[in-house]
């Protein structure tokens, strides 16, 4: 039986947190004398009232959650927070609720797809609210990926199970302590990124917004030109901190507590960094040879765009679809990659590719030595059968969702390129797709409302690693 009261209480806590953050854009609106003052006042009042009612109805002395509660809570939290967080957009002139929800879900899930234009002249309060949504979504996903998903054994995540991935009574203090450490490291990296952006020529407002959307690997910008509006130095800063956002945040926590950095002891981190280096250098060499660029410019453009797509940030710097057929194919495959588990990025994640390669290697050895016993290991741990089953299920569902979403988009009248890459970019949380409509030089404003709702659902599924939501539709989930 589901524990409704604890679920209500926790949802109330999340909504009260959202209410508190609504006061930040409200202050910006008051300071700049913007028309959005009323929108944020109404939104904070409604959200705060619902939060108080939910916490009052759900309050109890002991908070105990079982595995079914955790599955339902994870999905409900992201959905309900998005529904309330969309209010400032829909109360803002010229934005209907479909566009507001799409923009909010894209922000909360750190996807970065947008339906808004004229960002250079948009109200400061709306711009800071978009950035805050991505920043909150980033830290929210990190805590979920470290503390909850391994416990739920989603998509092979049990490999990264820590002592906090256990929701018994003794684990709650450990989880709270871990969440606090992750939050402070996240804030510290955001501040460092903001200072670096300011030193690279951005105003403080631009630097703050881009720092939040860089560390969260979200990709929202304050300009329609995205990162192309800023200096080459800002591009290098963005590349560095996007790559940092793709690393497991828990690694930074351990490095600070142990006062040593041991990157090369982690197979996932090592594979991620080598992958970025190899792809960026290869593409830079190809640009230098065939597109009349200097080596430095070629490396800057290649590394920024590769890191942006692999970490699913989705910043626009240049229209890489104009680089030729090879670049289009490369970036199409990069959309699937993702970076590290425990980071803010989406996608399939590097560790799943590494495990698949390890399984393939084991199978090849078995072919040559049928009577041999081979057991591949990952990060010093044996790859168990349940991890393999979970990973295979995840990948199959991942592809099934993309195919289904592509079909739905085609049925709304969109062309195949927009439909297919739109589905990919939603489920992988990348942001821009390919083609003239939703490519790096376009946005999602012209899409039909049905397509926007479908893509918003795809973003949620991708952010929650598919299985977390899919299990809710299984009849056995509701039987007991």
UniProtKB/TrEMBL annotation:
Ranges that cross the membrane: 7-31, 37-55, 76-95, 132-152, 183-205, 234-257, 269-288, 320-342, 391-411, 453-473
Main localization of the protein described in the UniProt heading: membrane
Keyword Transport found: yes
Pfam families: TrkH
Membrane-related topology note: Multi-pass membrane protein
Keyword Cell membrane attributed: yes
Subcellular location per the Swiss-Prot or TrEMBL entry: Cell inner membrane; Cell membrane
Classification via InterPro entries: Cat_transpt, TrkH
Keywords (A to Z) from UniProt: Cell inner membrane, Cell membrane, Ion transport, Membrane, Potassium, Potassium transport, Transmembrane, Transmembrane helix, Transport
Purpose of the protein: Low-affinity potassium transport system. Interacts with Trk system potassium uptake protein TrkA.
Family: Belongs to the TrkH potassium transport family.
UniProt-recorded name of the protein: Trk system potassium uptake protein
Species, as recorded: Shewanella algidipiscicola
Gene: trkI
